[in-house]
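Q: How would the structure tokens look for this protein?
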Amino acid sequence: MYIVSNVPPAFNKNNQLNVYGGLAVAVIDSIPEDGAVWAGIVTDPNDNKTSYDAVHRVERLPIVVEDKPQYLLHYGMWCKGKVYAAFHNLMEYAGLVGDRFSEDAVKTEEYYKAHVHTIDDFGKKLAKEIHRRDTIAGAKEPIMVHDYQLIELAESLRKHGLKDRTIGIFLHVPFPEPENFWLLPHADEVLDAYLEHDMISFQDEEYSQKNFLNVVREYYPNAQYDAAAQTLHVNGRSIAVKSFAASINPADTLEDAKNAENHPAVQDILSRAGDRKIIFSAQRFDIIKGIPQALAAVEQLLDEKPELAKDTYFVFCCQGTKYDGLRCYDEYQQESLDIIQRINDKHPGTFELVNGLPREAVLGLMRHTDVMYVPTIIEGQNLVVKEFIIAKEDGAKPGVALLSTGCAAYQGLKDTGGVFIHNPSDVADQKACLERALTMAVPEQEKILKAQQEAIHAWTSLDYGRGLTDALHQSGGLKGTAPGYVPPAADGPSKLDHI
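A: Here is the predicted structure in token form.
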């Protein structure tokens, strides 16, 4: 099997896969027994050597795209600046709705052309490499594409000779509401490129998959979706459309957390916290994360109940995020830092900003944490909250996962009785949920944790990985037109209908 992401996986100095971050944690257990080749884009011509990790059965395949300026426009300005914001329904950051981050149409078109150029260059080179390997191995392995940056890759691969290859895609971010999808320039072309896949898969059925199907029905009114078979019939093709919640490996997560609970960085934080309760938030300065609202909730809570400043220690582990040319990220981060400064001025010694912790230290600190604060506005699966819940097993102190309903992980945990932020944009709602989490009795914490741990054990990264891989192989049999399928009218919809 081929796994493809925007960049290839990171290998450490021991030539082994670095399993950290949402994508790697989610994807690792989708690697089949006979292994996989994991390809991605690199812009450094010296980074053209393959590497093989025998433990994880994965080969790293870097594909060099020489035009770095075009790549930077593809990734930073189009993918991150337009698609990422739009797919999260954060149109104020997409620069498309006449707000303070708006850009003229000429620049936006330049970004899109750079994106198309980069993806086609990547697709052409990857297709050539796959053809070469086919000749050697005598087998035509399926291709599993990951995430929003590569929606158009299947179209390019087919153009460059892989017409009969089974290609699937998994979207790690949400799929937007139709009205926001159609605001994206070239939305019709993005949709048609999406429909070049044999399998299209999402984090959740209730939101992302539903939005996608609604978009397809709006543009192709005669499209049919067979919910029982999870198959979409459109444009004379049959496409598997499924949802799989990305997850974690509980046994590995717990072992890593237990091994790291005495990590030096963890002990340093614990020494500063003393006997106070610890609120821990581990994320990056990203427009989807709801950080300014979360920090404002912390500030208001401390202002209104200063006694909490004596009993509580806030640890925000936030990595900086910067994309050249995207002012919204700079302003977002600065807004967050300004609130942190106010908190520290008014309540010194209560709040600690950590610019980064090793993954093992994050897991170790979770064993000692009272409240894990995950206040995202909207996002796909947040695996950090699942790691926290599992890290609380086997003798760790109890704690509360404070999670926003805007996170897809909420779908698997919503029936556990946990504390959930229903309006992450409402600072007062966040503050109330934070106070409830801090004052929850230990027996209730233990009851909720047990229910949440059972939910995670019932659907692990192994279930996700096997389900995704099996569905990809099965979707290869859907090629062609299903019996009883009624094709769209010959003239089709106007491409101006929704633009």
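The chain is about 45% helix and 15% strand.

The longest strand covers residues 277-284.

Upvote if useful.
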